[in-house]
Amino acid sequence: MRTIAKKTFVMLLVVAFVTTAFASNSFAQVVMQDDEITTENMVADALLVRPLGIVAVILGVGLFVISLPFSALGKNVKEAGEKLVMAPARFTFTRPLGEF
After folding, report:
1. Cβ neighbours of residue 57 under 8 Å, at least 6 residues apart?
2. Separation CA 61–CA 31 (nearest Å)
3. On the chain, which terminus has fewer CB atoms closer than 10 Å, C or N?
């Protein structure tokens, strides 16, 4: 009697795992992104995100200066400058207002 219960339990587990793998596709949804720049996005960008971007640029410059000797030894000064200074500067100063 016990072996029948074990076999039934194992079979139910196998069926549950197999159906779960196939069922997850049925819950997938297409997410539509609204590309319209709203006033709220512009205000949030101007009051919150841009000042934080300026802080990120300042911190990036500081970290770049601190890491410069190590970057020079590793011969990756250009990559360090790109990631620590230029990427935050581009995000802060060159993208359109309200576009994240």
Report:
1. 85, 88, 89, 92
2. 37
3. N
Tell me which residue has tokens 């960008």: 45
For residues 81 and 66, what is the distance between their CA atoms, to the nearest angstrom?
12
65's tokens:
């200066």
Helix (H, G, I), strand (E, B) or coil at 36: coil
CA–CA distance, 100 with 54 (Å, rounded to integer): 15
**Ordered alpha helix ranges (H), 1-100:** 2-23, 39-44, 50-74, 77-81, 87-93
Measure the CA–CA gap between 86 and 43, rounded to whole angstroms: 24
User: Residue 85 corresponds to which tokens in the numbers above?
Assistant: 């200074």
CA pair distance 81, 32, nearest whole angstrom: 35
Q: What is the pLDDT of residues 27-46, one digit of tens each?
A: 556 666 667 889 999 999 99
- d(C-alpha 56, C-alpha 73), whole Å: 25
Higher pLDDT, 89 or 12: 89
